[in-house]
Amino acid sequence: MSILIANWKMNPDSLNKAELLFAQEIKNNTKHQIIICPPHIWLESLYKKYKKYIQKNIGLGCQNINHEENGAHTGEVSIKMIKDSGCKYIIIGHSERRATGETQEIINQKIQLTLKHKLTPILCIGEPMVIKQQGLQSVKNYLETQLIECLKNISLADKKQKIFIAYEPIWAIGNFAIQHLNQTEILEIKQSIELTLQNLFSTLNIHKTFKILYGGSVDEKNIKTFVGNNLMDGSLIGTSSLNPKTFQTICKQIN
Question: Is 228 exposed, middle or buried (0-12, 13-18, 19+ CB in 10 A)?
Fold first, then answer.
């Protein structure tokens, strides 16, 4: 079973559109674990309307939380608010959040907070173009540093808890015209991430605890390059998740 996460970002612009999109994306799903991450404002309404469908293979996630459990943080959303809205998954450290000044330390705090409340973090990591241009080993080193700093002092006492790692090369996000990595490079990066995780969590079965996903301009034409056949465990999908036909085609491509 592959994991497909739909990151709607700041879309759609009405609850009616959000409900329609949600219904279309979960329709006839039997093969995959699908997690829908709409804007915060639609979470509670979607959960209430589609609660009977949100079970093992259909999940509701959010795109961000504040790194503090509570306090005077105007405009922010807390972990308890998100949990009360029916969410089980939280995207943390997306490059678009990092671009606003979010640090590795803050990302680490968010992960610890998410695990404390028994939710599943979706940790985003990825390199900019300047690192890509230095070669694959530089990319591996960059990702290793991100993982070490973001997962510092993380304890997984509850063996049932999971962490999703979404590898999203920054240079690929929103750029469907780029030359993607090939399958050999994808496999090398996945193995490098697994090795880093094994070094950090030597007592855990990392294949059960962690799931490694690919993101960055994923569509129905390239999904097979990244997912399945010992490649990534799934995908974090942005723009393509806003078109229900495209999203359903992506699901079918990796059946």
Answer: middle
CA-based nearest residue to 150, from 124, 118, 116: 124
Q: What is the pTM of this model?
A: 0.96
Q: Give the domain 3-253 fold.
A: TIM Barrel (3.20.20)
CA 228-36-231 angle, to 5 degrees, is: 15
CB-CB contact of 77 with 41 (8 Å): no
- Count the alpha carbons within 13 Å of 85 in the hemisphere toward its beta carbon: 25
Indicate if 168 belongs to the active site: yes
Active-site residue among 94, 96, 102, 144?
A: 94
DSSP strands (E only) in 19-153: 33-37, 58-62, 89-92, 120-125
Hey, which residues does 214 pair with through a beta bridge?
Answer: 167, 235
What is the per-residue pLDDT across 122-141, written as a single tens digit (0 to 9) for each? Answer: 999 999 999 999 999 999 99
Annotated active-site residue 67? The verdict is no
Q: Determine which one of 25, 102, 144, 168 is catalytic.
A: 168
Q: Measured between alpha carbons, how far is 21 from 10 in angstroms, rounded to an integer?
A: 14
